[in-house]
Specification:
Blueprint (H helix, E strand, L loop, with lengths): L1 H15 L2 H18 L1 H9 L7 E8 L4 H7 L9 E4 L5 H9 L5 E7 L5 E5 L3 H22 L4 H8 L18 H38 L2 H8 L2 H33 L4 H5 L6 H28 L6 H22 L6 H6 L6 H11 L4 H29 L8 H15 L1
Parallel strand pairs: 1-2, 1-3
Antiparallel strand pairs: 3-4
Length: 416
Amino acid sequence: MNNFGTIVSHTLSSKIRTKSFVISTVFMMILIIGLTNITTIVDLFTGDDDSPTEVAVVDESEDAGIIAQGLTAPNESEDETTFVLMDGQSLDNVIQEAEEGTYEGVVHLTGSTEDLQASFYGDSTNTAMEVEQQIQRLKEGVLTSELDINEEQLAAVYQPISFEQLSLEEGETVESEEESAASYFTVFAITYIIFFIVILFSTMIATEVATEKSSRVMELLVSSVNPVVQMFGKLTGIALSGVVNLVTLLVAFVIGMTIAGNNVTDFLSSDFIDLTLIGYGLLCVVLGYFIFGGVAAMLGALVSRTEEVNQSVQPLIFLALIGFFIVSFGQNAPDSTFVNVASYIPFFTPQLLILRVGAGSIAPVEIAILIAIMVVSAIIINVLAARIYKGGVLMYGKLSFKKNIKQALAMSKKEK
């Protein structure tokens, strides 16, 4: 046990002290803080201020310019766009003034109130949308007043209907739009994290083992520490370095939210975050790590040079890619037979379990079965990997999966 703790601490310290780890962690922290304050940063560089936007109005419409008068009437709101009526000026001259920066844009009104045509000259899409909405509201107000419709009748016309979506199965509930969006976002984020962990940490584990073998350090370690203890010590140490990295990113997120003036507690309790799904996600990340990590340690023990690491971990990367693609295409049909069957394959279970839980297309009993599959698979894979690792760390030669695995198992039996 003492040797296990020594290997864990050595692996952890060697990882978090590297320049690449420190630089990448600092970069990700800065990126997260920047993304949580992206609006403030954009406003800072665009030079936006709180002064209202001025838009020129060229009125060539009929009906005595009722709409133009409504647009240019005094407005108590300081945030909305203000309109300036350009009497006696041609459209070309006003557009030229806007090009010189006098106005944000130009509105050209033609036609009658019933058949009003409005053209906006300007580059700001947000301003154009706001102008369109204001003109539409004014037109509706003018036409309803001509029809002698009072405010109560007008409110009744625009009163939204009471609409409710119910499940075909009795007692079942249907996710709201906000809950569906939260599930979609969380599923995508967690499956991407699992995919990222598989690629990054699998390569890291295999490289760690292969480096020690190529430098002949492994021969010294085997004489003093059991190879199985070495393997699990490295797996645990690298996992803890990932936890350290995650904690620093969470700290950066909290700092970024605080700078932006947002309450982290309110954000976590909002409908956009599904904490239950995140809980399942953390469980899948841990079990998925030990499923893929055990195989990675075994593959690292089979290679003799660090140059062969990328070749050896390619099967794991392909499996992770397949799982990620199944999730990407399966989000449109999470209850399909293909997705259900694929979720029982241990290498795809971590990602597809999250997909099915997020879509609400899985029963609690099936969730328990899939979690049990991951636990049993992690145990079996790591027991087998430990046996191969025990014999593989002392093997040198050309990489051949089938031949090396047989030889490693044979050497492991002899050392018993």
